[in-house]
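Hello again,

I reread your note about wanting to compare the complex against the isolated chains. To keep things tidy I'm splitting this into two emails, and this first one only covers the full assembly. Below are the input lines as submitted, including protein chains and any nucleic acid or small-molecule components. They are followed by the predicted structure of everything together. The single-chain runs will come separately.
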Amino acid sequence: MPVVFITDALIFLLLFMVCLFIWYTLKHEYLRIPWRQVGKNSLAMSAAVVLLFYIAVGLLDTIHFHPRLNNIDQKEIKYSTDILSLLDVLTEKLRSRVERTYSAPFATHAYAKEAIDLPEGRQIRDYPRLYYGGSHLQYPGKEIAQDILGKTITGMVMGIITWLFISMVIIIILSRIRRCSMTTEFKLIIRRQHLIPWHVILITLGCILISGVTLAYLSSYYHVLGTDKVGQDVLYQSLKSVRTGLLIGTLTTLVMLPFALAMGIMAGYFSGWVDDIIQYIYTTLNSIPGVLLIAAAILMLEVYMTNHAADFTSIEQRADMRLLFLCMILGIMSWTGLCRLLRGETLKLREIDYVQAAQAFGVNHVTIMTRHVLPNVMHIVMISIVLDFSGLVLVEAVLAYISIGVDPSMISWGNMINSARLEMAREPIVWWSLGAAFIFMLGLVLAANLFADAVRDAFDPRIRTIPAG
Amino acid sequence: MINYILRRIAYALPILIGINIITFVLFFVVNTPDDMARMQLGQKRVTQEAIDKWKRERGYDMPVLWNSQAKGMKKITDSIFFQNSIKLFVFDFGQSDNGRDISNDISQRMWPSLAITVPALILGLIAYITFALTLAFFRASYIDVWGVVICVIMMSISGMFYIIGGQFIIGKLFNLVPISGYDSGVNAIKFVTLPVIVGLIGGIGSSTRWYRTIFLEEMGKDFVRTARAKGLSEKVVLYRHVLRNGLIPILTGVVVVLPMLFIGSLVTESFFAVPGLGSYTIDAINSQDFAIVRSMVYLGSVLYIIGLILTDISYTIADPRIRLE
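Full-complex prediction:
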């Protein structure tokens, strides 16, 4: 039985808007030019492939439902009260194989010594075997290195096969589009004669697929990234965090965009008292230090939630509301920058001939603003959306640390880092949680930054040069 | 000049009022003092008497805006709005929810904050400008390209990792400085070093890249071409023309953060257990001390507005083409 959280619904709305945007772009040549320039940038395309994988994981984690209970006795179908996502089902093994507490990556024994009962009745203190990690091994001390090596090679072979298959599909599709044979298409890619650097895309795809499939294969035998304090697999947590990170980065923009657009364009277009009021609003909001405003707002939300505990039926729903609220607060703070830019641009556009002409013809203000001004400020919107994204993902980690971020029950990189603070003081140190959060975050933010740079270069009219021919 | 500054301050007043109203609405209207009391005293089984007592001790038992039972001016002054919000205008922060004097706390705790933020800012500026100028000097070479790549990678790492990494490598592995804590006087140096270094490294990525674009923009301008055409060496062009003109946007950009140095950095201070205003705020957030959070929101906003005014003034000083009108 499907469950749709509010954030899920907003994500689908966002997805729909993105599709609409893509369809609109494809129809208009002047919009396709800058995107084509982004497409030529090999670094950006490689980043785009990485981003696509993150988005895929995030979307899989967005489809929630109550799983069906396997109850043979009863006729009617019963649903569990748990809420799972598609990602949870795909990573069933990771999710369900919970150890007792910390264990290092690829460990077969627990991190801390415990009292173990020997068969003859004595007790010794030793590292107990893990329930699941490396449980297929008879003598872990001797076999483990060989086993990991063997499984890695098997995993990599599987990854390479997957990669080759997907590359084939891509090449076939490309050759169909260009109406040439597959071999010529292949040669074109190898010789780098495409406008779009397909060889880079395929190599990136290969790197991700091979490492991904290897990880997936290994993770069904070991805890590849170790387990955390309550014994949950860190790889699973890292994957679940992707959705939180993406949500913060995108929903914030979605929430603030209508305000920023309407306010910015109105301020620039009407000037006079409308401009004064809007400027006053955003200067005031901008003056409040961001972290403090978030802290104040989240504190108030906590008070509200504890006093209205009955309104929230499940922990998930509570966490979801808090996430949405956080996005809204972040949105309130981040719309001011965009609004100011839009106002400035609209001030310039207002004096341009076609707007003046439209005014002289008596076209009403709303039409002028939507038909003539809006399309001409879209590049600013585009640039600021992509530039903001990576910053917002990073902010989430900081907020979680000050305990004003997402709900503590929600898996996020911020919460992972936050809990890892105490783990660093342990002896031997528990570095894997932190390391996993680091790598997964770096991957997303770096890809987003590189992609954003390319988009900015392509859309910024000051830098933009339309290629001859 | 004085006329201009006065007018700027007059413009700032409505903004301060706006902030005051926002914080008031956030803290007293969205959730009533009753809700806050219940939150503080424990969730469910709280008697009304306990709530009333909590409210009376903190002066939250007055009407929100208008006290009809009082006489004369007291009708206005004996209200939550006047006691808690209007008084902020004269920097009377009152008492925190656990009874400490907030103004006193602030005046004591701003010094540790400054001990970290000021050296970090100065050393940071020197370091970032040096890096950026180097990259600009070697523009479009491999040094520049790789420099930018490293900057982007460093930008993509969350600040938390720099702090944790710094604590681990410098503090734990090499045992050079204490991991966290603070001491008064000269002894503070060994506690301050690590936060300053970490802050410095954390800012390299974005700042260097930003300054590099500023310098490159200056390099494309006519006066630089003229200087080169005159036959000046690249070094002279760089130091005398590019650096000096590039410093205008950089320094005026710094001015806006100057007042905010008092507040310190929330995350850094709390990680390194520095008793500054940042950790003060975090402690208040964690113990849900609404009075302190409210005061800090207001203080931060005031400092930001001061920073904006200073920026406008510094523009006119740094760039004689700008006239005060």
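For quick reference: Chain B has two domains: 2-90, 102-318.

B.
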